[in-house]
Design a protein that fits this description.
33% helix, 39 strands, disordered N terminus, 5-stranded mixed β-sheet, Ubiquitin-like (UB roll), 5 domains, 8-stranded mixed β-sheet, 698 residues, Threonyl-tRNA Synthetase, Chain A, domain 2
Length: 698
């Protein structure tokens, strides 16, 4: 409901007035209160939107409220007329056009929300993650409306925003086909063009049930019935379309400037295979067409770079039906993997780590003691040995703890930095498996640091510097997130606060910005996560630093302090790559299979022009092999152009084209994957390549 805020001056006190109460306030004007105008909403209530006469307050104090903005500034507003949209209008001319929702005291809400007390307010735009979610959830409503217009009788289920888009599930007699998507898009654009407002209405459970029951929307009825008795139930209407929804939503449909429906899939109602199979339509939306065009271009580029496709084309790895979620690494894939591990070992040795290896299978009692049995067993695999229960490790940390407990340590030994390339197994649902990005067996580049409490800051900072060196080698930018205590956790509030403060202080010490991610810590401690950005702007959570007071307590870890007393050490759990497998998948897509020379499975392809130059080609090939350069010799009776194109398709960094001229002059013709060409001596080429490999030039 629109609030009326205009007042009049120059009214004589002795003039008769006509008074009225509007929005709970008494108004009076020099003219009778007539012709309010308005619209009748879905529930029949008159919504005033304008008045023809000017009005003044009658003996009323104006209540002011204080609004704290994200920059810390405080502004005062009239409590009778203030909403986030009005705040946006007061801040700039452009902000109201960009605003999609607001965050009031940490809760995302509609821009029309009435504010009647002091609050912290942030105006959200599409640039904010929460703003994107509101924008795309509103788009899903437009999708549902369009489908019900085109195919009356279609029942709607749920339509949330998801990463990079939205979907809606439908129960329809019509079977959707890809050709329908264009038709639906056109109808959605009509709805957008109409520019109807999203209007919120809170209703009783009985009213909501009757409303949707009368319309045969049985999925909405089921959702309402499953809500807690005290749950606030709300509906949103745009034009004639009404949906059950908690919101929030955009002010109007017209904010959705660019829409693209992506695909159709089947989905069981509520994800339960016992329920009916519904039809799911996926889409995405943006406030500008050029943003949508850019996104679609990135999608095409991502398809071209898909590590699963490149893994097969480049003969790196594969997946088979007999072992779902368990990758097979081919010889070339193992070269790539071994080079990564070699780099990892060198960097850890420089940083003062010692490498260990711990058991793959350990008994149930250990996992109960570590807390994994209570907090993680749904993700674990189990076996039985000598009629006793055992578990295949999902994490490496208990093994490191067992090693620590084999002897009593002195404060002088700490910190102990033990690194492990440990194979772990975790149960993942088949639908969640995704190439190397989500597997059931992977190698964590793990490490555990046992330290005194006074060493926390230095050790955490040391790990951050190590991760920075590793990521910079591949040209990755990254950001950090501080994740705090989750609901499913163990330990006292005091220890959790101490651990969280330790990580926060370390972050402040290095002077880098970070984001707080509430409730996303490990069950045993808070953590710093590293989210790296690839060449397509996608982010991947890889590295992590987890500060743990709990497991040393559970396992009774001790060290002899300087005063001879026994003290409990603190643990750091950390990874750089995250997992070798996943990092290879990320690298494959980041480089589009064009790995830097030091990582490339084949660094050089020797290409004789004809049989006449074959002997010289063999000499060059053997000279390269002698220098431990990974090379291949193409001896096939094919044209040189074909050989070059094939080597390029295999993403080989260097091609040596050898003909009669090269053989005669004892030179080589060098062609790079990027198309650069040169003629040089074999010795110079070898020296340059070896230098690039040694420096791990990317």
């Amino acid at each position: 409901m629109q609030r009326i805020t205009s007042t009049t001056s120059k009214q004589r006190r002795d003039e008769p007035t006509t008074a009225a109460t509007v929005n709970g306030r008494k108004w009076a004007g020099g003219l009778p209160l007539v012709n309010l105008g308005g619209t009748t909403g879905m529930f029949g209530a008159l919504v005033p939107f304008g008045m023809r006469a000017p009005f003044v307050f009658l003996k009323e104090e104006i209540k002011m409220i204080n609004i704290t903005l994200p920059d810390g500034s405080v502004k005062s507003y009239d409590a009778a007329s203030i909403s986030p949209m009005e705040i946006a209008k007061s801040l700039s001319n452009s902000l109201p056009k960009k605003a999609v929702a607001a965050k009031v005291n940490g809760e995302v809400c509609d821009l029309s929300t009435v504010l009647d007390k002091d609050a912290e307010v942030a105006i959200l735009t599409f640039d904010d993650e929460e703003g994107k979610e509101v924008f795309r959830h509103s788009s899903s409503h437009v999708l549902a409306e369009a489908v019900q217009r085109l195919w009356p009788g279609t029942k709607i289920a749920i339509g949330p925003a998801i990463e990079n888009g939205f979907y809606y599930d439908f129960d329809s007699e019509h079977t959707f086909v890809p050709e329908d998507l264009e038709k639906i898009e056109k109808e959605m654009k009509k709805i957008v063009k109409a520019g109807d407002a999203f209007e919120r209405r809170e209703v009783s459970r009985e009213e909501a049930l009757k409303f949707f029951s009368d319309r045969g929307e049985n999925y909405k009825v089921e959702l309402i019935e499953d809500l807690p008795e005290d749950e606030t139930i709300s509906m949103y209407q745009d034009g004639d379309y009404v949906d059950l929804c908690a919101g929030p939503h955009l002010p109007k449909t017209s904010a959705i400037k660019a829409i693209k429906l992506m695909s159709i899939a089947g989905a069981y109602w509520r994800g339960d295979e016992k329920n009916k199979m519904l039809q799911r339509i996926y889409g995405t939306s943006f406030p500008k067409q050029d943003a949508l065009d850019e996104y679609l271009h990135l999608l095409e580029e991502a398809k071209r770079r898909d590590h699963r496709k490149l893994g097969k084309e480049l003969d790196l790895f594969s997946f088979v039906e007999e072992a779902p979620g368990f990758p097979i690494f081919h010889p070339k894939g193992m070269i790539l993997r071994n080079e990564l591990e070699k780099f990892w070992r060198e960097e850890h040795e420089k940083a003062g780590y010692s490498e260990i290896r711990t058991p793959l299978i350990m008994n149930r009692a250990l996992w109960e003691r570590s807390g994994h049995w209570d907090h993680y067993k749904e993700n674990m695999y189990f076996t039985e040995i000598d009629e006793q229960p055992y578990a295949i490790k999902p994490m490496n940390c208990p093994g490191g703890i067992l090693l620590y407990n084999e002897s009593l340590h002195s404060y002088r030994e700490l910190p102990l930095r033990w690194a492990e390339l440990g194979l772990v197994h975790r149960h993942e649902l088949s639908g969640a498996l995704h190439g190397l990005m989500r597997v059931r067996a992977f190698t964590q580049d793990d490490a555990h640091i046992f330290m005194r409490e006074d060493q926390i800051i230095d050790e955490v900072v040391g790990v951050m510097k190590l991760v920075d060196r590793v990521y910079s080698k591949f040209g990755f930018d990254y950001h950090m997130e501080l994740s705090t205590r989750p609901e499913d956790s163990m330990g006292s509030d005091e220890l959790w606060e101490k651990a969280t403060e330790g990580l926060r202080t370390a972050l402040q010490t290095v002077g880098k910005d970070y984001i707080v991610n509430p409730g996303d810590g490990a069950f045993y401690g808070p953590k710093i996560d590293f989210h790296l950005k690839d060449c397509l702007g996608r982010t991947w959570q890889c590295g992590t630093i987890q500060l743990d007071f709990q497991m040393p307590l559970n396992f009774g870890l001790e060290y002899i302090a300087e005063d001879g007393s026994r003290q409990r050490p603190i643990m750091i759990h950390r990874v750089c790559f995250g997992s070798i497998e996943r990092f290879i998948g990320i690298l494959t897509e980041h480089f589009a299979g064009k790995f830097p020379t030091w990582l490339a499975p084949t660094q050089v392809k020797v290409l004789p022009v004809s049989d006449k130059s074959m002997d010289y080609a063999k000499e060059v090939y053997e000279a390269l092999r002698e220098k431990m350069i990974r090379c291949e010799l193409d001896t096939r009776n094919e044209k040189i152009g074909y050989k070059i194109r094939e080597a390029q398709s295999q993403k080989i960094p260097y091609m040596l084209v050898l003909g009669d001229k090269e053989a005669e002059n004892d030179t080589i013709s060098v062609r790079t994957l990027s198309g650069e060409q040169s003629v040089e001596s074999l010795a110079d080429f070898i020296a340059r390549l070896q230098a690039d490999v040694k420096s791990r030039k990317s």
